[in-house]
Amino acid sequence: MIPAIDIEGLSHVYGGAEGAVAALEDVSLSVAAGRFTVIVGPSGCGKTSLLMMLAGLRAQSRGAIRVLGGPMPAPDPLRVGVIFQEASLYPWLTALENVEFPLSLRGTPKPDCRKRAGAMLELVGLSGFGERYPHELSGGMKQRVSIARGLVQDPPVLLMDEPFAALDEQTRMTMGHELLRIWSTTSKTVVFITHSLTEAVYLADEVLVMSARPGRIIDRIEVPLPRPRSYDMMATDVFGRLRDRIWQQIRKSEA
Amino acid sequence: MKIIAARLALLALVLAAWEFLPRYGIVNPLLLPPLGDVLAMLGELLQRAQVREALGVSGAEVLLAFVVAVPLGAALGVLIAESDYLGEVFKPMLFIVFAIPKSIFLPMFILVFGTGFQQKVAYAAFTTTFVVLMSAAAAIESVKQDYLLVARSYGATRIQVLARVYVPSMMPLLLETLRISMIFNFTGVLIAEMYASRTGIGHMIASWGENFQMKQLFAGVVLLAVAAVVFNEMVRWLETRVSAWRT
Description:
Distance between the termini of chain A: 39 Å
Strand content of chain B: under 5%
Radius of gyration of chain B: 22 Å
Order of helices and strands of chain B: HHHHHHHHHH
Distance between the termini of chain B: 22 Å
Oligomer: heterodimer
CATH architecture of chain B: Orthogonal Bundle
Helix content of chain B: over 70%
Low-confidence stretches of chain A: none
CATH topology of chain B: MetI-like fold
Mean pLDDT of chain A: 90
Low-confidence stretches of chain B: none
Strand order of the largest sheet of chain A: 5-6-7-3-8-9
Strand content of chain A: 15-25%
Number of strands of chain A: 9
Shape of chain B: globular
Number of domains of chain B: 1
Structural class of chain A: alpha/beta
Largest interface: A-B, 22 and 20 residues
């Protein structure tokens, strides 16, 4: 079976000949369809660059990216949905209109947009909030809308760039749990970037650890915890050992 | 509610002072005619064909200069904001020129365009274009990069990014620009008319002043003030409507 995401020998260099900065170095990875993969690493390790390339939003210097068997020279919202930090909702649109936005770009008829966007808001637990503007929603609710927007075109692959980083710890854990619930009903392939080790272990099937710049993948950790995950698992030894191993790897790479 | 009452009281006080101070000779009525007399004169002036014609000419000048300057300034502003190269090259010069009082160029406009309709339009359009250009560039730069990235990630075309992201995001600032540019535009036409002209409301006000016809002069001032305030409030009303999403 073809993996949902296949990256081979990916390198990226910023800037010109003199001020060139190597952001990524020889990154190779493969994600099977339906898996939840989390990437962690120190700030500036090129995680976001990697995600942008996967989304077709940025070109790589070298190497090959295949998503569902094809390259990503430009954004393709039918294959890949992206969910950004800070929700990035359009403040002049209501929650419902924000979710409709990707559909309306493709000329989907209005009633159809309404129906699908409404269904997505319901999936993320926000039915009844469709008419609210972003500034009338809490941080967690905004990010729910953003997830609904990412899912509305039903792309098989979902890329998430530190989506919960701006939320408080408690909301963050609730949102992570919610995301797993949504993921289990939609069977998407997810690549999720985070700084939080707890979040990484809690969400992931597999955690990829990246080194400081130039970013390389220095460890791959399978998370054997059963699904559905529950909050009590965080207190287990397995959970603690996994988190500790990731921590050690990141520390080593920064030293 | 209390604030509104106080504001109305202030307005009433100013108007009452205008009426009664000259009426009782506390202020020289030759310099400041009482409000009632000014309003009566305004009613009379509006009956005169000559005044109506002057208003028509000035109105046409303002409108035409606006129609020329706003798209021109907006297009130049977009170019400068969108192209890093053009921005780097032109911005310093524009900032410097922006600081120069535009009225010193008025004699040049008279040499080139004469003292007629064209000169008023050209001069007002010239002063307005600068304002529109600067505000349009600022409005475009105010659009968050995140918004553009989201649109691109959903496969938006260039036209869609423009229509669905730039325009709504910039709309409050654009209306603000429209409002300010109209003020500059209006001022431009009036100054040009007062400086050298044979017609137009600005010309009439200037000649009333020169001939010490204070009632006529103040009637003209009231008329223009009302026109300016009405336009300003109309655009402000639109602004609050389209920027309801702003907190």
